[in-house]
Structures are given as structure tokens and as C-alpha cells.
């Protein structure tokens, strides 16, 4: 495999409070970062046998985006059907669409577009909900493998009846999930792994969730679900699980909550629930676009962070109306700002914090912090090359400095607030190029 060095402006959010920006180099061998250093160190080092890429002053390299929560089968509804609250929206638009993925060809066609769309948006790692269907969801696995995207893929589990007839009986469901895990592991692809995916406590009973927890333990899989997104949902699950003290208690009693569990939304968690999340190491996928579009509420991310809960960002298509983590960063900042202005939940998260949540924070939330998220020796090179001066791009250059470009930190800030997929000229996963702007990505 290739060995190369990228030289130029490097950006790496290492914690909520620290954004590294420097002129330097990253050396990559067989997909892994083998050296990182300053520009001065590069100028005096021996580089025999290495391909050297010196990037332009208007460019910088940053870690790839991590989408901690999205629904691949819902992409055909992206931008549609946002006129109902959660439970009605699921019944009217979402379950009928997801039910179509019994057709494997339909699934393959959609998932090909989904994976390409996300890579084009700079999402080098995605944590996907598939559908109820074993073979349909394996098409998503195949698409991620084919296009070299890092992914956690979940076959959705549901055993409670709904109007669309979109559910499974418990025994068949547990058998299918185990088959799914074995099939994904059978591909022996280091980038894609299965994730256990009970949809939420409205769609799964305790017996199914306990069975899924056993499978997660048996195969050492991560788990994902939804929690406390919408007030009616919370009311309903507490009614059917009347012996449980709160929503978190329902999942906890079924053995779902642990340090490889990521829960989407968490809009209405109590202080007790937040401290339980922190104590058990449960992460949250914050999905501001869908929380707004489905009128679910505003997630107090600052409070979760103050409780030391790991948080990443999710696009949550198609409750969310955008497949872009850049967009999710801005929506997260907006929601946080509104909470700060109206309810004193602050300070609002700033752009550097949003960038951390979109990269290293997301990696940590998915339990991938040893592999991706920052540029450190030993990690995989999952990265984006950002160009602030693309033709017909969204950002104009007004800089009058002798260098002709903004300071590194100003380039990054402008990209966070004003950039789009046109500025993401290249993307890499494990050292392999998965986007090159010269190619046409949308057929
Ligand atoms: O935003 C959401 N999208 C979904 O598909 C879903 N299922 C349960 N809860 C959900 N919330
Ligand atoms: Zn969701």
C-alpha cells in the first residue's frame, strides 16, 4: 500500500477546549499515521521513497466527519413529510418507506447513493440504522465496503405491531440479528462492523431488548437506539413500562446501557438520567436538525457535556433535512444559542466545540477514539482536504495579507460557518482517497 506525506496547514480538534492549528506534515503508511510534525521538522527530515503532496496556502487538512446517527433507508424521504410529530411521522411516512427494503434491488440502489452522498459531504465514518430486513441491510454493508466508508451498520429490530405491518416476531428477529452479525463479520472488512439496533422502547418489548443485549455481549457489539426525543413518546413508554422510574431505567433494566451504547436525541433527560449516562459511559448522538423539523424540542448539549457525557453529532435523516455534518454543526450551535438566550442553559457551544463534536467527539461517542478523530501516530488517516478557494464556491477571499490567505484558524472558522461540500475537495478513509472533486459524485 501507499506511503505519502501531506505538507501544509493542519487542523485537529483534540478536545472540547483545544483546536490544534499548525503548519506541518502528516506521514501515512498503509493507511496509518506514522509521523506528525511541524513544517520545520519536515524541512530537515529524510523523505526517501515517499510521495510528497504540498497543499496550497488556501487549503488545510482536518479529520473526517463522523455522523453518529442516520437512517440510510429514509434518504428517499429527505426533505419530505416534515409536517407531523414523531409518532405520527413514523406511522405515516417512515414505516411505509422502510418496509420497501424487503426488495434487495431497491435497497442496493438507494444505499449506493446514500454512501456516495455522505462521502461527498465529508462523512468518513457513519453510524447507520438500516431497516428491519436482513438482506436489505446487508446491501448497505456492501455499499459501505465497496466505497471504503468506515461504518457501523445496524439491522433495525422491532417486534411491536404497527399499522404498516413493519415488525418481526421475537424469535425470528433474534435469529436474524445473529445472522446479520455473522454475515458482517464474515466480510472481514476492518472498516465496517455490525451494531445492535433496537429501534426504541415504543417498537421493542423487554424480552426482545434483553435478547439483543445478550447478543451484544456475546459478539462484543456496540448498541444504538433512540431515547427521550418527544414528550408524547416519553409519556407512552412510561405508560407501557409503568414499573420503570424513567426512560433510562427501561433500557437499563434490559441491559442495553453500557460504554458501547449510543443513544440518539436525549432531549428531555433528567439530571438523574444524565448522571446515569455518565456513570455507565453511554454516549449521545445529538441530532439538532430532526429535533427542530419534527418539533421534538431542544437538546441541552451543554448540560450533557457538563455531566461528562460523550456527545457526537447525527444528521438523523429523514427526520433531519440535511445529510451534512457541517450543517449539523451549525444547527447544534443555533439550538444551543437559543437555549442559552431563552432558558439560560449556557454558555452556548461555540464553533470550535462544534467542530470537536463533529470529529473527535463523534469518534469517542462511537468508541472509535483509538482509531480515528485526530491526527495522532498510530491512528488511521481519515481526513478531509478543505479548499477555501474552489471555483464557484460559497466563500470569497477578501484577505489583503501578504500571504494572500487568512490565518489558519480564520480559514477553519469560515469553513465551519460558511463552507459546503464544494470546499471538501478530497476525503480519505484509512489512507485511501474516497472523494476527489475532479470526479462526478452525483449520478
Ligand atoms: O428521529 C427519529 N427517527 C426514527 O426513525 C425513529 N424511530 C424511533 N424514533 C425515531 N426518531
Ligand atoms: Zn433516528
UniProtKB/TrEMBL annotation:
It comes from Bicyclus anynana. GO terms for molecular function: guanine deaminase activity; zinc ion binding. Catalyzes the hydrolytic deamination of guanine, producing xanthine and ammonia. SUPFAM superfamilies: Composite domain of metallo-dependent hydrolases, Metallo-dependent hydrolases. One of its GO terms (biological process) is guanine catabolic process. Binds 1 zinc ion per subunit. InterPro entries: Amidohydro-rel (IPR006680), Guanine_deaminase (IPR014311), Metal-dep_hydrolase_composite (IPR011059), Metal_Hydrolase (IPR032466), Metallo-dep_hydrolases (IPR051607). GO terms for cellular component: cytosol. The keyword Zinc applies. PANTHER family: GUANINE DEAMINASE (PTHR11271). Keywords: Hydrolase, Metal-binding, Zinc. Residues 60-434 form the Amidohydrolase-related domain. This is Guanine deaminase. Pathway: Purine metabolism; guanine degradation; xanthine from guanine: step 1/1.
